[in-house]
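[agent] plan:
  1. take the single chain provided in the ticket
  2. run structure prediction with default settings
  3. attach structure tokens to the ticket
  4. add a short note for the reviewer (M.T.)
[agent] executing step 1
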Amino acid sequence: MLDAALYYGDKSEKDSRILNRLGLLPNQYIFATLHRAENTDNTQRLTAIFKALIEVAREIPIVLPLHPRTKKALRQEGLQDKVSTHLQLIEPVGYLDMVALEKNACLIATDSGGVQKEAFFHRVPCVTLREETEWVELIEQGFNRLASPSHSETIVTVIKESLKKTTLSWNSSLYGNGKAAITVLDIAFPC
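[agent] step 2 finished; step 3 output follows
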């Protein structure tokens, strides 16, 4: 996964124009994703998450590609108009644009498992909008923080505290060196 993140991170710098299209500057926005059923299909959690994101967006722009499930939930709860006036909601994006948005954010807020790791690979602090994460090592390293999606105040506090952390010690050996594919090939096909 690190190999792919590094490869496509470089490729996104050359090929993605999403920051220009959206009028974003590197490190001047939060990138958010939300798609898990336990958050989108639960009115209390959905409301708490978006209430918190709206509060944070008063201080720093938040960009959120709107997953179809999330879009449907916002419509059903009558929240889409309110949310769209405070957050920069965009259509789902392709992988290179996703990587560019992740890589250039000052912080990522997500309920995605994969995005948590990609945040680490791109050295961007992450707040996970869940009660738990499968990537506990990222919590232990301080790159990721959990924020209960049930309470907007908790989410706001965790995001604001995470924004204040300006330096994180990146443990480059945590997931390897980004050359796993080359190592496998060298072992499988020694010259």
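[agent] step 4 note for reviewer: The CA atoms of residues 123 and 170 lie 7 Å apart.
[agent] ticket updated
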